[in-house]
Fold:
Amino acid sequence: LRGIRGAGQASRGNQGFLQRFEMIYPSNVRFVQTPMLNIGYEEHGDASGFPIILLHGFPYDIRSFDGVIAPLVEAGHRVIVPYLRGYGPTSFLDPDAPRMAEQAAIGQDVVDLAAALGINRMALAGFDWGLRAGCITSILHPEMVAGFVAIGGYSVQNTVQKEQPAPAFREARMWYQWYFNTEQGRVGLEENRRDIIRHLWETWAPTWDYTDEAFNLSAPSFDNPDFVDIVLHSYRHRHMNAPGEDRFIEVELNLAEGPPVTVPSIVLRGADSGLGAPSQDPSADERNFTQLVARRIVSGAGHDLPVQRPDAVSAALLELL
Structure:
């Protein structure tokens, strides 16, 4: 891939990074191997309980769900919170594998994670990239998903056809995506990633006051040697400026049609999202989620809704289950 750093270089950095990461989180992280990845995750609750997988997005990590877990554990559930590819201790098994992260890949990672853990049925909740992975898992493998909390609504992309330009105010909110499609964006993310990420946190949840302590709990996850390549590929593939994996060509063609999510779902939207106030009109969500149990605009929540209103996420999961 032109412009994507050599995978071998990233792999050589993984071992030292993992050692540093495990010094920070020595007892909480477990690992499981899928066909592509060594996935780091945290697990909580009764191992025999019904499983719930919580999926974070960009630019966040599993700490976004810390406030969601306790009510689910108290209800007897098994809660699994994985680091997505390119985040935290998750790494590629093949040092020479291209560092790619199209939407179909992160959806497949959820399916592979469940299979590696011996899970054939589960509930999902996700936001941002995790929302997209949850949508794709639910669309392609509805038999696996007992319920889905879609934080932000329908998020499947059309990566086959060039999108039409959006109004200026919407394009302006997507500045980071255009930035990551440039070489300057690569250098910026390599050299100033914490500054960029903190800025995105604060602008996407403008009514929330992030502490340095909260940010510093997640910041080590963005030092993953694959992080920059994964982020760049995700946004470049989305805008048709980088190739995807051959194994997902048919999947992406299918997803480009905008297939609905057919599993029981609750859509949560943050009332205070810096990416734009949610529409009061439920028709799009009703069309995209054919078993829509509820649609809620959650006050006091920005884009990363589980951070500000974890109670809304746990309550929605328990309602579905």
DSSP finds 13 helices and nine strands in the chain. Residues 1-11 have pLDDT under 50 and may be disordered.
